[in-house]
Design a protein that fits this description.
This protein is of the alpha+beta class. Helices cover 25% and strands 35% of the residues.
């Protein structure tokens, strides 16, 4: 009897254990803030380091058309003119006819096709987040804006409850730059023991794009470690108060400093720091450049604005940022140049805000960095674009340095009516550093060596143009 009881208990344990283990490892899926019911079919699961998502559940919640071919074990997902085709067990899929490599091949469980999380984000136009602590996949149905840097910005998401949303924050050259999508009335103060500059933004909150692209934590809080300033060691930001809603930015100081601030027409806030024993001002003041030459580097796109999607599924915005950060690092070696970068991460900025950053900083040079694209894989090469005659010399100089190091086709220096090069008042150029839609160009552009060569060439061109 005892042996029989033990056997029954053992069998029950074997039956229950897989369920318990499955419950511990099943990721939750949250679509636009609503948890998706995974009771029907196979749930999402972790396979190795890849989160596999049930494509049918996500597709049906988004209204996509799903067609399953049992004979070939392939699935076709369609919405409008967009078409995705996958086959179980194969590590390649097609998006609108272009081949995309997958992190892990699709698989079939309990009649449901599971695909990698990254593929859901890139192939279906979703913004994707992952919380490793709660094992939660967050999907946002706001599609990325794909296109060149033209004259129109994406439609702005409505600001909740009349609050201004913080979209981006950066610090360089003793200057804090904060970008928002609404009017702001900053309150600047200083606290001692230890010394800090406090910048409060009343009636403000963090945008979802900022939380996804820049913030360290789900509540929007985070920090920037500063390495190029003798005054500031760290920049911290968080929600100081929810009622009333207030964002607080704290600048941890290495020495006593005063702060002067100014706000541009397109809601860009600059806070300039100067080492001194005086009290900070609490009213707008023009930024000071300390006799340095101001160079603004603008990595194109960011956030929802993915830019071109390469043949292998890489985003142009990531290529632009990688090169932009490398240019910034090289320029910081020149003591007579103060470098300002419009975004240091996956921040979304409007074209007007990019211009505003350049104008508020009283820039001497503006360089926007991009990757090119076309509807066919044939076009390739380097081209340099400018809008105003005052920018031609800068365009010629940069093109002269960039072209040889790339080894790509010379598409020339051209005029184009682009917002960031047309509306700025300083010499301004937009560089197209190859075609992500061309297999030869793309293979080079996504390498560290190519990006480093481009960055050094851009700096060499800037230095010659400035006569330094």
């Amino acid at each position: 009897m005892k042996k029989w009881s033990a056997a029954v208990v053992f069998l029950l344990f074997l039956c229950l254990f897989p369920v318990m283990a499955h419950a511990d490892t099943t990721p939750s899926i949250v679509l636009d803030g609503v948890t998706i019911n995974q009771q029907t079919g196979a749930p999402a699961e972790n396979i190795g380091k890849t989160v596999m998502v049930p494509i049918r559940i996500v597709s049906e919640n988004l209204g996509y058309k799903v067609k399953w071919e049992k004979e070939t074990q392939s699935v076709q997902v369609q919405k409008g003119n967009s078409m995705i085709q996958m086959t179980a067990g194969k590590d390649a899929a097609t998006v609108n006819g272009n081949v995309v490599n997958l992190d892990s091949p699709p698989l079939i469980k309990q009649g449901t096709t599971l695909v990698p999380l990254r593929f859901v984000g890139e192939g279906m136009g979703l913004r994707v987040g992952w919380d490793n602590g709660t094992k939660t996949v967050s999907l946002f149905s706001i599609p990325p804006v794909v296109g060149t840097e033209g004259d129109s910005d994406p439609v702005e998401t409505p600001v909740p409850d009349g609050l201004t949303e913080l979209q981006g924050i950066s610090f360089s050259g003793d200057r804090l730059i904060v970008v928002t999508n609404g009017n702001i009335s900053p309150k600047v103060s200083r606290i001692s023991g230890p010394d800090r500059i406090i910048v409060d933004l009343p009636a403000a909150t963090f945008s979802q794009e900022f939380i996804q692209g820049q913030a360290s934590n789900p509540d929007g809080s985070g920090q920037i470690l500063v390495t190029d300033s003798s005054i500031v060691s760290k920049v911290r930001y968080a929600m100081f108060s929810k009622s009333p809603s207030t964002v607080r930015v704290v600048l941890d100081l290495n020495q006593t400093a005063t702060a002067k601030w100014s706000v541009g027409d397109n809601n860009v806030l600059l806070v300039d720091l100067t080492a001194t024993s005086g009290e900070p001002t609490s009213q707008p003041a023009a930024p000071t450049n300390d006799g340095k030459t101001i160079v603004v580097i603008d990595p194109g796109h960011g956030g929802r604005q993915s830019g071109a999607v390469s043949l292998s599924g890489a985003y142009e915005k990531d290529f632009n940022l990688a090169v932009g950060l490398k240019v910034q690092a090289v320029l910081q070696q020149y003591p007579n140049i103060q470098t300002v970068i419009t975004r240091q991460d996956d921040t979304e900025l409007s074209l007007k805000q990019r211009v505003d950053i350049a104008e508020l900083n009283q820039a001497d040079v503006f360089v926007s960095i991009h990757g090119n694209k076309f509807t066919t894989p044939v076009p390739n090469g380097i081209e340099t674009l400018y809008s105003r005659k005052e920018s031609k010399t800068l365009a010629d100089t940069l093109h002269k340095y960039v072209l040889p190091v790339t080894g790509l086709k010379d598409r020339g220096v051209k005029t184009a009516s682009l917002h960031v090069t047309r509306e700025t008042t300083m010499p301004a150029v937009l560089l197209e550093l190859g075609f992500l839609s061309n297999p030869t160009d793309e293979a080079l552009m996504l390498t560290e060596d190519y990006q480093n060569k481009c960055a050094q060439a851009i700096v060499d061109g800037i230095v010659e143009f400035l006569g330094l």
